[in-house]
Write a structure and sequence with these properties.
51% of the residues lie in helices and 11% in strands. It is of the alpha/beta class and 209 residues long.
């Protein structure tokens, strides 16, 4: 594994601790973490304002365009000749993910990175879930809100992420067959779950050598 580039993708339910786990994995494997950072990279590559990517981040809001086909989207260059659409934003974002993945060890949080990098070697795809009480508690702390508002935020976010992922990949968000490992962070806690993932990644890559 020492001479191989490592790419980790993390899908996550809202409030599951996915970003914290990504940061801990990055410390262990010496990786760059890309979460919302991908939006800025995509904006730089495309010339579009970052706000367009932020407003449509992991959301499926359809524009009236020629792109409304319910098939997975892959970049073949032809889309860039068309008018602005959410699908173009996805393609620019996908290109930014691929460009980042071509450089160093990296971890991508969300944004269909597992699908975008499906043909890349040494990619480990993880999905993180957690018990609803833990997720609500994290959201209450993060947003400074009550339990109902935290639960509403979780449901809204998960619904958006699922619709976005399902539409662009042709797969089902959170379904175990889409990932190499699905873990419940409530069982071992954030640190314990991180170690579990580390052990899995090291064994997986060593087996593939």
């Amino acid at each position: 594994m020492e001479n191989k580039k490592l790419i980790i993708t993390i899908g996550r339910e809202q409030g599951s601790g996915g970003r914290k786990i990504a940061n801990l994995l990055a410390e262990h494997f010496t990786c760059e973490v890309y979460d919302k950072e991908i939006l800025n990279l995509a904006a730089q590559e495309s010339g579009f304002s970052p706000r367009f990517f932020e407003q449509n981040d992991e959301k499926k809001k359809f524009f009236k365009s020629l792109f409304h086909l319910h098939i997975p989207y892959v970049s073949d260059g032809n889309f860039y000749n068309n008018d602005f659409s959410q699908e173009n934003l996805f393609l620019f974002q996908s290109d930014a993910i691929r460009k980042a993945a071509s450089k160093n060890n990296c971890i991508f949080v969300g944004r269909c990175a597992d699908y975008v990098l499906r043909d890349y070697p040494n990619v480990v795809n993880i999905f993180i879930t957690a018990g609803i009480s833990d997720r609500v508690a994290r959201m209450m702390k993060r947003l400074g809100c009550n339990e109902k508002k935290a639960l509403d935020a979780i449901n809204e976010s998960d619904e958006s992420r699922a619709s976005y992922y399902n539409y662009y990949t042709g797969k089902k968000w959170g379904q175990c067959s889409s990932y190499d490992l699905c873990v419940n962070s409530s069982l071992l806690g954030i640190e314990g779950t991180t170690q579990q993932i580390i052990d899995f990644i090291e064994k997986k890559l060593n087996t593939e050598q």
